[in-house]
Every structure is written in C-alpha cells, then in structure tokens.
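job 3f2a | input accepted
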Amino acid sequence: MSERIDFVSNVKGFTAVKKMNVDLTKKPEDILQFIVSIQVSTNSKIKSLLAEIVDVEKFIEENKALFDLDESVFLTEIYSAKTKKKITAVIPKEIDKNIKDAFVEAVQVYLLEDYFLKNNKVIAYHQILFPALKKLKKAIKG
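job 3f2a | predicted structure (142 res):
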C-alpha cells in the first residue's frame, strides 16, 4: 500500500481534486507545498461560505476606518468588545448561540487577512506563493 494525500471535494459550488503519491522521491518541501495548495482551495471556500452566511461586506463598509488604523491599534480594536458587538450584529439571528462565538472569530480572521493582505503582509500559509502556487495567486488574494 502506497502512502497518499488525497483531498476531494464535490459539493455544490466547490469542486476540488488534489492527490499526491508520497514515495521516496518526495521531499518534505514538496509535501509542504502540496498541503499548502489544499489550504488555498479550502480557505477560499471558507471565505466565500462565510460571506454567504454573515454580511461581512456590510461590516467592512460600516467600519472602513478600521482598515486605516496602525497595525497594533487595528489588532487591539479588532478584538475589542465594541468591535465584537458590531460583528455579532451582522451574524444572522438564526445561527445557533452555541456557535455564534466561533462565527465572531471567523469574521475576525476574515478581517485580519484582508487587513494584512492590503498591507502586503503574509499571515497564513495559504498566502505564501510557493512556485507551484503562483498560478493560484488570484485564489490566494480573493
């Protein structure tokens, strides 16, 4: 039995097939790049699904000034009680209260990624442009 990494998604609006045989010719850096490519696919879908569930664009539009803040101030503000309350306001009421906090954190991650990408800073593995991922640059930025 050979070692493999398989990622297959065939869900409405999200089709992705990524497979890699892992043998003696594969170097750790090859495997790392492959796994990062899976993150590119999944992160892009996470962001689009989150935006379908939570009106992230409305939050961003109403809080544009956040993105003009200095990095340290932005980080403090994004985790402040005031901002968490504003994020909670754009989360649909029908979301189960047991997972509402997770949605607040998901929106915070969304905002962090946007802020740092706009400032040309990488904060997650899926944003690293390994040579094999350069063709996926649009997906990373999106």
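job 3f2a | The two ends are 38 Å apart (CA to CA).
job 3f2a | closed
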